[in-house]
Structure formats: structure tokens, C-alpha cells
Amino acid sequence: MTENFETERLWVRLPRSDDALRVAELMSEKQLPWNLARAPWPYTVDDAENWIVRARTSFDEKTDFPFVVGTQEDGLIGACGVVPIKDDIFELGYWIGKPYWGRGYVTEAARGVLDWAGRTLEIHKFISGHIKENAASGRVLIKLGFEPVGDTMHYVVSRDCEVCATRYVLGAPADLALESAALYKRPNT
Predict the structure, then answer these.
(1) If pLDDT is split at 50, 70 and 90, which confidence band does 50 have?
(2) Whole-prediction pTM value?
(3) What is the SS3 assignment for 185?
(4) Interstrand relation of 4-6 and 125-131 (parallel, antiparallel or unpaired)
(5) According to the model, what pLDDT value does residue 189 have?
(6) Distance CA 125, CA 127 (A)
């Protein structure tokens, strides 16, 4: 299974242990983990190292397909991946470091990962979503061909609370996109 590929401006590959410092540096901007469901805040090098170990293991086990993305000039600038939700339907997730916002990188990376999933995994149905206040992420999903299907609540680790999220589909059933937000729950305390 292909672990790396390129798009027009980006390289895309499986994360490596030496990426931890850079991931932690980019995720130190509070707005990033604040808008992601599973990322803690503050985000530490240990968090990055743990994510990389889980990413590599889940890729090998074919339970999750996370990639880091970067440019030749800047190195690693973010991450993008897909995770199986049900049968032949996957969820798309992504983030790009704040210095690289507004350049179309996240759209290009996500399109590359969707294309990779189609070629490599033969998956063509996806769901995704964004925290309602993060409208830029919604614009990315629309550019990728996703359609909004409604709002629902889900838990965000960094905020330690539930927030309103807008859910989207690309060839997948709307009810699954809305129901899958329930996967993001407060950990048992």
C-alpha cells in the first residue's frame, strides 16, 4: 500500500518520529487544536509523539490512514487522512498550520488523500465536518464536492465541552454523517 505520494505543490507521506517537534510547533497555535475534535490543548511534543506512534500502527493495521503534508520550501505544514466509519464509508479529517492558511494547501492535500483512498482503498464515499464557527473548513469541503447535511453537537477534547458542528457527505448517507458525530464523546472521568 502506498505510504507517500505527491500533489501539484505538496508531498504527502506517513508521519515519522522525527516529525514530532514540527507537529507540536504547528499545533502550539491554540486555534488549531481548538477546532479539532481529538487534539488536546496545550499540545505537547509527547502528544505529537503519541499521535505518530498511533498513526503508524493504525496505518499498518488498516484501521486509519493518516498522512502529514508539506512543501519542499517549508517542510511539514499539516496533516490529512481518512478513517473508516462504516462498511465502505470513511471520514476525512485535516489541519494545516496557521502560517499556511489561505493558500489552498488544505484543499489540495484533502483532494490528494481522497484520490489516494479511491485508487488504493477503492473508497468513494466520505463524511466530514467542522466546528460551526470554523467556516473556512466548510468552504474547503464544498470545494471538494461535499454537501452539508445539518448541524449536531460533538465533544472537542481541547475545549473539554460539546460544540456545534456542521456535517457533510460526499456520496454517503446524510444520517450517517450526523450520527457519526456521536463518536466524539467526552472521555469517561
Answers:
(1) very high
(2) 0.94
(3) coil
(4) unpaired
(5) 47
(6) 7
Task: For residue 99, count CB atoms less than 10 angstroms from its CB and return exposed for 0-12, middle for 13-18, buried for 19 or more.
Answer: exposed
- Is the CB of residue 184 less than 8 Å from the CB of residue 38? yes
Residues 122, 125: Cα–Cα separation, whole Å: 10
**Residue 69 φ then ψ, to 5°:** -130, 150
CA distances to 100, 137, 183 from 152, in Å: 29, 16, 12
Closest CA to 96 of 118, 117, 67, 121: 67
What are the grid coordinates assigned to 36, written together?
479539532
| β-pair type (89-96, 125-131) | parallel
All cell numbers assigned to 9: 505543490
- Asked if the bond preceding 173 is cis, omega within 30° of 0, the reply is no
Label each residue of the chain as H, E or C: CCCEEECCCCEEECCCHHHHHHHHHHHCCCHHHHCCCCCCCCCCHHHHHHHHHHHHHHHHHCCCEEEEEEECCCEEEEEEEEEEEECCEEEEEEEECHHHCCCCHHHHHHHHHHHHHHHHHCCCEEEEEEECCCHHHHHHHHHCCCEEEEEEEEEECCCCEEEEEEEEEECCCHHHHHHHHHHCCCCCC
